[in-house]
Amino acid sequence: MDQSGSTGGQGAPTGPTSGWSAPPPPPAQPGPKGFVYADVPNRAIAYIIDAIILGIVNIVVFAILGGVGLRIYTFDLVNGFQYNYLFSIIYAAIGLAISGAYFIYTWTKRRSTIGMQVLGMQVGDAGSGATLTQDQAIKRWIALGAPFGIVQAFNPLPLIGLVVGVAALAWFIYLVYTTYQSPTKQGWHDIFAHTMVVKAANAVA
Q1: pTM summary value
Q2: Domain contains 18
Q3: How many domains does the chain have?
Q4: pLDDT one-digit tens code per residue, 76-106
Q5: pLDDT in tens, 192-202
Q6: Is residue 8 in a domain?
Q7: What are the helix (H) ranges across the chain?
Q8: Range of the domain at 159
Q9: In 3D, which of 189, 48, 24, 51 has the Cα closest to residue 119?
Q10: 135: burial class by Cβ within 10 Å (0-12, 13-18, 19+)?
Q11: Is 20 part of any domain?
């Protein structure tokens, strides 16, 4: 199958970087041939799986940082609990970097995150189905994942943290809404990066 989504005969499927590597589809399936557009519930479940994976990685990394003295919270009998805002921002920046590396790498090298693989989904260029370029993956992650890292960085700050948190929640709702409303299930982040998420037709329950 070439990048346009058409099949080229009975030969072996092309590699993952050449387009949608689809299984033989049932008749009259919507979306690219052999696929259906990935809906909001499937994408939400995949994102939760990825969030759990990232959470475990972050716990390990932050435990190491705490072991070398970079602790967000400290306690002593004289001053009680103390919160280190600088270390909090450092932790948030590291968490943001881990998130970016995870999503950008899996989108560009594997065409799907671990969560997406569990659900039988993949992401590709909206027009050709080709594997995302680095620029596309970065743009998609900035729109989808980066705002939550910013919330983590500013969350401890009075008032500012609340305002940023509410703004991030509103942004998340907007992305879900635009994805749900789109006939091709492309949220604003997909339009921005010119991407599309699909699910193999033979994986649909």
Answers
A1: 0.75
A2: no
A3: 1
A4: 777 777 777 777 778 888 888 999 999 999 9
A5: 999 999 997 76
A6: no
A7: 40-67, 85-105, 114-118, 134-144, 146-154, 160-181, 188-193
A8: 34-203
A9: 48
A10: exposed
A11: no
